[in-house]
Inverse folding.
């Protein structure tokens, strides 16, 4: 099976998964108490939760948001648009189409995510290697203790703390907003610490495993300088499995981070997603949910492709050139 | 040190650090010589310290190990005293090592070219282009067909026998004076075993000193000139290969011969040695073999062990040898 066949198979799986995700999200949304019309009514003060609104108002809202159409038809109408990347206007942000909101907010979240994962890797790899090379020493234990702390610290707490420190006290950085590169620093820092901790642990254990491999000893036996052997033979091979951890991490951050975006007033996807869920904004919720699923699956595909690129044993599976066994 | 010895190991002692316990002595006063163009077999069961002995000489012990005494004279220098920087120049250049399984001792993600040339470059032996030529030649020398093409493949793309040959080529590409082969035939098929042994014999005939670490006397007798029998970290008998096979003196050597299938073509009934090798943390006092020895005389065997010279190039660590002789 060639690469094209492989990609084709993955594409079919991707489409099927997207359909499943859309059905599931839609069903859950229908099962959730309340709908957009109700919530609007309550929020606008036309009625209260226990009470009943005027008939005309209920009717008007219901027809506007399609509640008078059978549920299955609502789904089909939505999906008909979704196939051509048209999710229709948002309920809550009525002047804008969902796909436009995604197109505007996604680059913001993606930029943050890429920078955060990059920074996390830059922090995690040296720390993980450092700890692995000093396995079971006090340095190793101290490092891993600090890493556990970093892992346990939620990003919104880090963000809040950094706002206090860098913005309120030191007055070095803006406390939020999305205007210039200086606005990137706090959210990227806040978002990278947790992933850095996760990745550092992973690098350490992966590195320990690789260092025990006979080919590392064999490379030393060939007279390799310790540093070269560690980098070329041990580190290289221990970083390959890291791709499978870093990929999903990146996808998770790319689809938006509700707390950090809210705290630092960043117009990212996470905020829209949270608002859509809270207000039962069907098109926005469906659109973002399907978009997240798409991002996740594309990331996984990319991870698998990179894995094959890095590990020749995987690359040739299927197209193999084995000459024995 | 005997005249003309290539490597002369004297009273080597290696210990392993343990948590909350006394260090474990894995190699306890081991001495032997190997000459240019000669092959020495270090024979013993697993755990007898034969691999640790050679890894001590190469300076590739795990971190928990420490060499606590002895000398390893090679080309007039004590390898145990020259420090890692100097030892690194010898390692892989003048003394090379072949491991049990090329599957494990070769890096799965690097091509043969990379792995066969990197140490030529580390040692500054030649340029990159020249290194490639030498690597191709080395692959051809060990009988790998179409080496120009093979050099671009990864170890897993070769059959078991080819892979084992490639590892030997990797060791021989720097034209070392001494080759240490650590159980080089244990992990391969019987048919391949013979080919590997022929290859090692050929290297010996071309003037390379060979140290063959093995648990299998049948393998050792194939081309080794001398043998050292190890038990529980100590040398129990040292003899020319033929003499050891015809007339083993130490009761352990006798047992080892009796337990091997078809050694020296003699069809003797199999007689396994009763008991099992001692746990090194509870090494018996005196002769470590006495609890399993049918001829042990207490209390003398449990208190002292004497090394007796019993002929030219022959000694045995058993005082009873002198009485019997």
């Amino acid at each position: 099976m060639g690469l094209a066949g492989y990609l084709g198979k993955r594409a079919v799986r991707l489409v099927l998964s997207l359909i499943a995700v859309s059905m599931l999200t839609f069903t859950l949304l229908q099962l959730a108490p309340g709908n957009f019309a109700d919530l609007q009514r309550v929020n606008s003060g036309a009625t209260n939760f226990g009470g009943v609104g005027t008939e005309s108002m209920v009717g008007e809202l219901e027809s506007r948001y399609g509640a008078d159409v059978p549920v299955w038809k609502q789904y089909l109408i939505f999906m008909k648009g979704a196939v051509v990347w048209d999710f229709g206007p948002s309920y809550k942000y009525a002047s804008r189409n969902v796909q436009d909101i995604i197109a505007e907010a996604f680059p913001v979240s993606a930029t943050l995510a890429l920078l955060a994962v990059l920074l996390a890797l830059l922090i995690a790899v040296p720390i993980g290697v450092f700890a692995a090379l000093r396995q079971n020493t006090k340095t190793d234990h101290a490092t891993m203790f600090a890493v556990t702390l970093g892992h346990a610290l939620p990003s919104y707490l880090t963000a809040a703390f950094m706002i206090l420190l860098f913005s309120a006290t030191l007055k070095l950085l803006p406390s939020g907003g999305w205007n210039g590169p200086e606005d990137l620093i706090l959210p990227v820092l806040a978002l990278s610490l947790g992933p850095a901790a996760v990745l550092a642990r992973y690098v350490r254990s992966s590195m320990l495993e690789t260092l025990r491999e006979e080919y590392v000893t064999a490379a030393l036996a060939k007279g390799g300088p310790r540093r070269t052997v560690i980098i070329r033979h041990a580190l290289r091979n221990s970083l390959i499995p890291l791709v499978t951890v870093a990929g999903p991490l990146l996808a998770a951050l790319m689809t938006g981070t509700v707390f950090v975006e809210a705290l630092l007033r960043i117009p990212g996807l996470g905020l829209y997603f949270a608002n859509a869920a809270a207000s039962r904004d069907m098109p926005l919720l469906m659109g973002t949910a399907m978009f997240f699923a798409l991002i996740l699956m594309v990331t996984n595909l990319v991870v698998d492709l990179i894995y094959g690129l890095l590990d020749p044993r995987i690359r040739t599976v299927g197209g193999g050139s084995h000459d024995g066994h | 040190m005997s005249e003309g010895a290539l490597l002369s190991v004297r009273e080597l002692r290696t210990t392993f650090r343990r948590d909350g316990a006394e260090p474990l002595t894995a190699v306890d006063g081991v001495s032997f010589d190997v000459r240019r163009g000669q092959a020495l077999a270090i024979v013993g069961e697993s755990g007898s310290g034969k691999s640790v002995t050679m890894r001590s000489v190469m300076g590739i012990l795990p971190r928990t190990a420490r060499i606590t005494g002895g000398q390893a004279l090679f080309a007039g220098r004590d390898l145990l005293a020259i420090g890692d920087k100097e030892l690194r120049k010898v390692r892989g250049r003048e003394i090379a090592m072949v491991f049990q399984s090329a599957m494990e001792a070769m890096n799965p993600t690097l091509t043969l070219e990379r792995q066969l040339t990197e140490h030529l470059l580390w040692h500054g032996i030649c340029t990159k282009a020249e290194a490639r030529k030498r690597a191709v030649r080395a692959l051809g020398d060990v009988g790998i067909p179409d080496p120009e093409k093979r050099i671009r493949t990864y170890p897993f793309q070769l059959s078991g026998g080819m892979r084992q040959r490639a590892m030997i080529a990797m060791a021989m590409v720097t034209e070392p004076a001494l080759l240490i082969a650590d159980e080089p035939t244990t992990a391969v098929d019987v048919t391949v075993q013979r080919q590997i042994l022929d290859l090692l014999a050929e290297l010996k005939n071309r003037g390379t000193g060979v140290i063959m670490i093995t648990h299998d006397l049948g393998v050792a007798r194939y081309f080794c000139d001398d043998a050292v029998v190890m038990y529980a970290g100590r040398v129990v008998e040292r003899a020319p290969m033929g003499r050891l096979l015809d007339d083993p003196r130490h009761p352990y050597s006798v047992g080892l011969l009796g337990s091997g299938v078809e050694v020296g073509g003699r069809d003797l009934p199999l007689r396994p040695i009763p008991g099992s090798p001692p746990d090194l943390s509870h090494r018996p006092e005196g002769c470590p073999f006495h609890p399993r020895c049918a001829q042990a005389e207490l209390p003398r065997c449990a208190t002292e062990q004497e090394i007796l010279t019993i002929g030219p190039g022959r000694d045995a660590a058993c005082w009873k040898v002198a009485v019997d002789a």
